Amino acid sequence: MSEPPVLLSTDRDGVRTLTLNRPHRKNAIDPALWSALAEALRRTADDRSVRALIVAGAGDAFCSGADIGAPDLRHPVYRMRALTDVALLLRELPIPTVAKVAGVAMGAGWNLALGCDLVVATPESTFCQIFTKRGLTLDLGGSWLLPRLIGLQQAKRLALLAETIDAGQALELGLVTWVVPGTDIDAFTDELGERLAVGPPVALAQTKALLDAGAETAFRDALAAEARAQGLNFATADAPEAYAAFAQRREPRFTGRWTAPRRGPEHAATSTENGA
């Protein structure tokens, strides 16, 4: 009898859901799951049909972190490279990402959720930067994500003391976007994914990039980046479609299609003759 896949991937209406599938270990990530996650994120980045991503866990947990009990004979440099690949791939995805956290999110598992753009939790969800209790330091981007999300002092509190906090505390700190009843989290997250998937893909990708870069960008540089992004938006069919939908009192149908005028052969010849 073959073992079940460690990662499940399902697509529906432009939304891809990646489900960590090791419920017997509270979805702790072993070498096989790190590899599967990285490959799935690469495929997602290259798939234009996917317009939003949901990351979830099977069973009653989101992810209890890296599976430190799983045998891994690789040199620590290569073991950490597997984590780094996943963190970078998730961070650099040009589509909106959502973590669906039902149950525990610990260590690298919590940082996997924080690496997503939005986080949905339930009242039963618990969170812990458990690293120091294991004699370890933050990984999967936690040292970068936490101070930017909640400030340096609160980040030090969570990282140094390795406190477990509940969903209410996480929401108050700004580490969770929504807390919804456990019986509603599937429907809530599905609807959220659908709302993101029907949005203007080029504008959403650029908005995400602008916000991610904004924390480390001077105001003048941020304005210049916004102007460049807006120019690209005006060159798609989505902005005119939004105006038309508003005038016609209907929902817009965003495609991200490029509509900027292109030079034809005649124009190119004329430009060359004129020295342009």
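(ticket continues) Second input and output from the same batch:
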Amino acid sequence: MHGFLNLNKPAGFTSHDCVAKVRRLLQMKRVGHAGTLDPAAIGVLPIALGKATRLLQFLRQDKAYRATVRLGVSTTTDDLEGEVLLAHPVAALDLTTVETALQQFQGTIQQVPPNYSAIQVKGKRLYDLARAGEPIEVKSRAVQVFSLEVLDWRSGDFPELDLAIACGPGTYIRSIARDLGTVLKTGGALAALTRTSSSGFDLADSLTLEALEAQQEQGLFQPIEPVEALRHLSAISLSATIARRWCQGQRITIYPTADDRWESVEDGETGKHKDADSTQVYAVDPLQQPLRVHHEDGRFLGIGKPTDTEVGIILLSQMVFDGDEQTAN
């Protein structure tokens, strides 16, 4: 069983807890996850099964959330799970003021991760340092917030704001809640968080642990095929001969075509790749992007890296997913 599981993580479970549970349910050793979720958060947690664990690094990096921010409160963990540091009613706060403040949290922003987070500093997790009472100095880092939309506003002594957030990797929603409270001079903390999409997986298509267990008991569970999770990558199809050589780690020559595709140079061909349009303009540098590598019969073989050399562009093996004897036939 090799592929992905789109898990709907329940509250109270760490991401590691979910991996351990899936291992037991599917009776598998090789299980991993992408994009850690805090125990209190719920929603999409991509799980890799078997050889697909080696593909986690190639998944899409964007994520989306529904978040509830409570204003007038600050805590040690930047969410309502931590010790309250400040609680001051801000009934006069209005949505217009909040919306104006939110504008500075879109685009590329500088963000300091929460003290209680899994980031490592000098080989130690921040949450371990925080729990031990050790001094913590975390540098800010650039993250991307693609969109930030107000879904609902509930006024009161401690008003709450529901947000839809689409962001890049490494973005902490708890930090947005904390920093919004700082800008407003009210304090702010994350009250609830649901991840609605991650790495190309959506909440609407996710499975709960209970549903996974039921499907497994009935013999109905089928993992998501690796290629379905890698559709965002460009692909190249190799003939049987070239595919065998690539799976064996040999260098093969490839070239980009004028219609944004890649092709390989077959044995005996000369000069064809030199005729490729060298003036072709790509939205993203194709040499910086990995490729899905397929056998001409459609089978997914693995991930390759186009690399420019003095003799042309060659396709190196980054990960061979299916290199068994069938490839050689």
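Agent notes: The chain has eight helices and 19 strands. The radius of gyration is 24 Å. Closing as not reproducible unless the customer responds.
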